[in-house]
Amino acid sequence: MTSSETVYLTAADSAGNMVSFINSNYDLFGSGVVVPGTGFVLHDRGAGFTMDPGVPNTVAPGKRPFHTLIPGFVTRPGSNPAADGSTDTPYMSFGLMGGSMQAQGHAEMLINHIVFGMNIQDAIDAPRFRHETGVRVSLESAFPDSVRAQLTSMGHILGPGGHGAFGGAQAIIRLLQGYAAGSDPRKDGYAAGW
Fold it and tell me: According to the CATH classification, is domain 4-128+166-183 in 2.40.30.60?
C-alpha cells in the first residue's frame, strides 16, 4: 500500500481540445467505502478539517476542507472569439501531484518555462526546492553547494527532502502545429502521442 493515491493526467486532441485532470482518494486508499455497483472508493478529504475554533479550516456546515487538488491550465490571448465571447486560446494543460508541494511546484515549473524559456521537459526536470515552514527549505540533490551555502548564509535551514517530496508533473503545450509534452521522472508516467 502506498501513502498517497493521487493521479494526474492531461490529454489533447487534433481539434485543439485539452483537459487537465487530477484525482485523489487522499490518505492511503481514501475512506475505504466503495460505492455499491460502481467499483470506486470515496475519498477521505474531510481529514483536512480541524476542530479548533476560529481558523479557516474549522469544520462547519457547508464548508469544504483545504486541499491541494490543482489541475492547471494556461491560456493565451487570441483573436478569434469563442462561443462564450472569450478570445483566449488553450496553451498548456499541466499538473503536479505532491500534496502541499503542488502550488509551489506549479509556480516553479511555470517560471522555468515562461520566464526562463525552458522547453516543457526541461522545466519539469529542473531541480526543485520546497518551502517547509518558516526559514526551513528542502532542496533536491541537483542544487549546487554554492546555492546551499548562499541560502544558509541568508539564515535558511536546509532540510533533506525525501523521495517524493518534490512532486511529479505532467504537461502538454499546444504548438503552432501539434503539441509538445513532458513527463516527470520523479513519478510514474510518460508523454505519448500519435
Answer: no
